[in-house]
Design goal:
The protein is built from 5 helices and 7 strands; from the N terminus they run βαβαβαββββαα. By secondary structure, it is of the alpha/beta class. It has a 7-stranded mixed β-sheet. The N and C termini lie close together (10 Å).
Length: 198
């Protein structure tokens, strides 16, 4: 069974592929294996809509099972921002560090109990006929006052897990994949893929 990960984000693709390969025998491809395939340019209004659009585009273009992911960081003190705009919070084409800086500047000196946040990941699995199934994962934590740790990507250095007393960036990739929003969502999708592969 071939599964195409419908993302242009190399880090996300690697994380998803790593979790899948731990759980089952599967031939995981990325959009890099299909140079002509482009994802829809216009974002949807929900994580679900974005994930489904990506997966459908990849399945239609490649003729393979496809998995689309959309995820975001929601900070309570910011009314759920950056949310759907997590990747471009500080503007189009910005670095991960610029997104983190904007977020930390907005939170300023707020105390820990007002820095609660959650990561959400929605995954759509689409078969070559266009049938869609959607799953979700969530991870609760809070925002630190500065970067801590050198692993991961995106907001990982400022997302602190009280249960582990570490940021995502301080966890090993294996630890992060066990508990993260994306790890939960990918594992929730595995029964769908196993049914298809049997």
């Amino acid at each position: 069974m071939v599964l195409v990960i419908a993302t242009e984000n190399k880090h996300k693709g690697e994380e998803i592929a790593s979790i899948l390969r731990e759980e089952m025998k599967i031939d995981v491809r990325t959009l890099a294996d299909f140079p002509g395939v482009k994802l829809p340019p216009k974002p949807g209004l929900t994580y679900r809509e974005n994930a489904v659009q990506k997966a459908l585009a990849a399945a239609n273009a490649t003729g393979h099972w496809s998995m689309g992911d959309d995820s975001g960081l929601e900070v309570e003190a910011l009314g759920g921002a950056p949310g759907l705009y997590s990747a471009r919070f500080a503007g189009e084409g910005v670095t991960y560090a610029e997104n983190r800086k904007k977020l930390l500047d907005l939170l300023g000196d707020l105390p820990d109990d007002q820095r609660r946040a959650r990561f959400i990941c929605t995954i759509a699995v689409v078969n070559p006929d266009g049938k869609v199934e959607v799953v979700e994962g969530r991870c609760e934590g809070r925002i630190t006052r500065h970067d801590v740790g050198s692993g991961g990507f995106g907001y990982d250095p400022i997302f602190f897990l009280p249960t582990h007393n570490k940021t995502f960036a301080e966890l090993s990739p294996e630890e992060k994949n066990r508990i993260s929003h994306r790890g939960q969502a990918v594992r929730a999708a595995i029964p769908i893929l196993k049914r298809a592969a049997s």
